[in-house]
Input
Amino acid sequence: MIEITTPETNSLQETKSDIDPNLEELNAEDQSFYSSIVPDLNAMLEDPNPEIINKIVNYSKSV
Output
């Protein structure tokens, strides 16, 4: 198997604005919901579940 690495300076580590430009288009209830799930979504980006990674790799091998 080939070992693949990612450079230490990738886009996930760059600081980005916490405010989504499309957030202003949402009503108050939707903004509240979005704000409540953003931390969990960002955590999934930074540390994805190994099961999900395995599913992606297995799918890639099957194609």
The helical segments are 28-46, 50-62. DSSP finds two helices and no strands in the chain. The mean pLDDT is 80. Residues 20 and 41 are 13 Å apart (CA to CA).
